[in-house]
Amino acid sequence: MDQIFIYLIDPKFPIFVSLPIEMGSIIRFFEDKTLLVTGGTGFLAKIMVEKILRIQPNVKKLFLLIRAKDAAAGSATQRFHDEIIKVIPVSGDVTCEDLISLEESDLRDELWRDIDVIVHSAATTKFDERYDIAMGINVMGAMHVLNFAKKCTNIKMLLHVSTAYVCGERDGVILKRLFAMGETLNGTSGLDIWVEKQLVEEKLRDVRAEEATEKAVTAAMKDFGIQSTLHLKSPGRSVFHGVIPPIILYSFPQKKHNGLLKLPKRRTMDVFALGVGKGKLSCLLFDPESVADMIPGDMVVNSMLVAIAVNATANQHPKFMIYHVGSSLRNPLGYDSIQVCGFRYFTKNPWIDRRSGNPVKVRKIRVFSNTTSYRKYVTIHYLMPLKVFKLLNVALCHCPKATYINQERKMKFLLRLVELYMPYLFFKGIFDDLNTEKLRMEARESGGEEEGVFYFDPKCIDWEQYFMNIHFPGVVKYLF
Known about the structure:
The chain has 480 residues and is of the alpha/beta class. Helix content is 44%, strand content 12%. It has 14 helices and 13 strands. The longest helix is centred in the C-terminal third of the chain and has 26 residues. It is globular, with a radius of gyration of 24 Å. The two termini are 24 Å apart.
């Protein structure tokens, strides 16, 4: 489930979205336009850049903000050549107030003068990210991009891509709303990000003062983030900071197009697919009544591009517009359905063990609907045998080491899944997408050959066909 925020920077635009825009106008909008995209090597940014260049090769300039990993890894330009097709790489960092280094003053002036649209998609999407890193990228980064946008004299809008789960743990239909400055997810007010940032910096200094290893520092900052987000009633480590891993899927066949994108990272749900296929996942914990709000990545990008063109070209529109882009309302998918599809797929297409060369036999996964029974199962089937193996190894010195290691790895894997994903596996919210439906209506009403170019209606998705014929085969081929 993804959520798109539109921030219109130019005050000259009035307040309401008026007439439908023609599909050809969406493509024409990007002609001779200059865009800045943060998170240039990220998942959504890659899809969006490819889409823009494919449908509108006459786009004026596409600037991709890319952070060099470190001095030894080379410049942002090197990352660009390694990971992205040829556009215009910009060395920068959203965690820095200036965004672009002072040495690039000429380039910065050019961006301030020429940028039409900024798409902010840079974020850390790790569920257990260090609190200081999450704060720097997902909180301060968003503020730095907003401040940079305010200096762009020709800008029409700033589009910020976030996860819908910034709403916290809620039930029922979740409407689109803006949070007031200082408002927290637990209903209290007075949250000051500068105070929070100071607390993070103090904690980091205290840990490093103890001459801890970098591994220990990382563990301490992760624990600090867990305590902070629990206090704020966030469903995940990075939720408070604005962007966490959304449940975005890789691709979906749009009419005549059945290709799969080759992408470098394993996403949220694919951890479970890996566990099922390799026989490491013997049990699952989820609420059978919970809906897995998922959406293919190309549909997210289509909605982004339509939202940009519609809001930037309409005669009137609001200063702030929120679009929920997901499937929970119009084509809900239960976690039990995904589990059944995974079992069926890997039964018909077994994983081949690289060491033995033999197919992995997939067993039916036991499903638990509460944490008590789940932990009891893990204790009996993994923790207790692990202790027995350890005692035998000490007493008899002939317990197979491989068996012990394998059992320990499975136990840690199962407990880790619960820790990271439980808030989402028990999420009861359904996201209202009225604004997004209005975009879809405009796309449908325009008709013509280009109607399918920006298709993003989740109703068209046959989930069983998608997982069996598109997603799982792609995951196995390209990621594992």
